[in-house]
Every structure is written in structure tokens, then in C-alpha cells.
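C-alpha cells as discussed.
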């Protein structure tokens, strides 16, 4: 059986809230039209282009815990149309997410493209792995961080969010790429200016 994102998210209390706010009929229809339980090439490319994501897990006491995970662009690897993974680099060594996943393997992720104002939401079952074969799949050559394990995510459903309220933010790499053409044009104009000055300069 396949699930939509809203099949998972729409608990009885969520349905009651939708009903109270007049959106239940809309989501009954929209949910049936949005059966996203396998990644297409579009999602695979989006995931591979990310350098970070946000992951929520739930503790045994019922508290949600949201953590930011990051690495070089491409550290998230799509292994097949229902599986993706990444290296889990050593951080502050609290191991809250790791501990939560040992008790409940459910995870909710948000992947952001701030310049493009896109947001991908994912429900998945997650596991940690120290299998050398899995670690080889998520290795990041040349990145100076200690890999403690791999995080492997098994997709249940995903959904794309609307761009409303996503403020474009840019990395230094984005900015360098954006101004490279301007710098080139400035260099051309400066060279033209020097050449013009040389032609019109009075001779001794």
C-alpha cells in the first residue's frame, strides 16, 4: 500500500483542525492527487544538491528534537528511489538523535533551497549503520570531519512546500558565482578605460 504525505500527517486531531478551519474538503482531494512515495529524478537532483537538512526525531518521553545536519554539497546520497543516506559526522557528542532513533526509527526531515525558495518535506524510517559497505557509499573525499556512522533513510512519503515566507539566503559560493560575471565586466571596462586614456593622452 502506498501512502501520501497527508495520509501520515493527518491524524484525527489534524483532521479536526482542518475541519474547523474549512480546509478539510480541499485536503481530501489534494491528498489523493499527491502520492509521493518514490523519488523521481527531480527529487534525487534536489537532494544531491543540498549541503544541510533539518531532522526531527522523538524521544521516549515524547519530546520532539530537531537537529541541523550539514556537510559539503552532495553529502546526501540517493541510493535508490526510496532510500537516501549520509555520513554522520562527529559533533558535540550528545547523541540525542542517535539515541532517539534507537527507540523510534521515525524521522521527519526538511531540506531547504533558500536561493531557489524551495522546501522538500520527508517522512522516513531511519537507521544508523557502521557497515563498511554503507560507509563507503556515503564517504566524502577530502572533507576533514570524523565519520562516526551512516544515517540511512527509508522513504515513506515526501511533499513539496509552497515558497511563501522562504527568504532567499545565499552562501559565499553562491555570491562568488553571482559576482564573477560582474568582476569580469569591470575588468574589461577598466582595460578599455586605460586604453582610451593612452590614446587621448597628450604627447610630450
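Sequence:
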Amino acid at each position: 500500500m502506498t501512502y501520501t504525505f497527508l495520509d501520515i500527517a493527518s491524524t484525527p486531531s489534524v483532521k479536526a483542525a482542518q475541519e474547523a478551519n474549512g480546509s478539510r474538503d480541499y485536503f481530501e482531494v489534494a491528498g489523493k492527487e499527491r502520492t509521493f512515495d518514490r523519488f523521481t529524478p527531480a527529487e534525487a537532483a534536489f537532494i544531491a544538491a543540498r549541503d544541510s537538512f533539518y531532522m526531527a526525531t522523538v524521544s521516549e518521553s515524547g519530546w520532539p528534537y530537531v537537529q541541523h545536519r550539514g556537510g559539503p554539497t552532495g553529502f546526501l546520497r540517493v541510493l535508490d528511489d526510496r532510500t537516501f543516506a549520509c555520513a554522520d559526522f562527529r559533533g558535540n557528542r550528545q547523541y540525542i538523535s542517535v539515541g532517539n532513533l534507537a527507540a523510534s526509527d521515525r524521522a521527519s526531515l526538511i531540506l531547504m533551497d533558500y536561493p531557489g525558495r524551495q522546501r522538500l518535506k520527508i517522512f522516513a524510517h531511519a537507521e544508523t549503520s557502521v557497515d563498511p559497505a554503507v560507509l563507503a557509499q556515503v564517504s566524502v573525499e577530502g572533507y576533514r570531519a570524523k565519520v562516526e556512522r551512516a544515517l540511512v533513510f527509508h522513504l515513506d512519503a515526501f511533499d513539496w512546500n509552497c515558497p511563501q515566507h522562504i527568504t532567499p539566503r545565499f552562501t559565499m559560493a553562491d555570491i562568488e558565482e553571482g559576482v564573477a560575471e560582474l568582476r569580469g565586466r569591470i575588468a574589461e571596462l577598466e582595460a578599455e578605460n586605460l586604453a582610451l586614456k593612452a590614446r587621448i593622452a597628450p604627447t610630450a
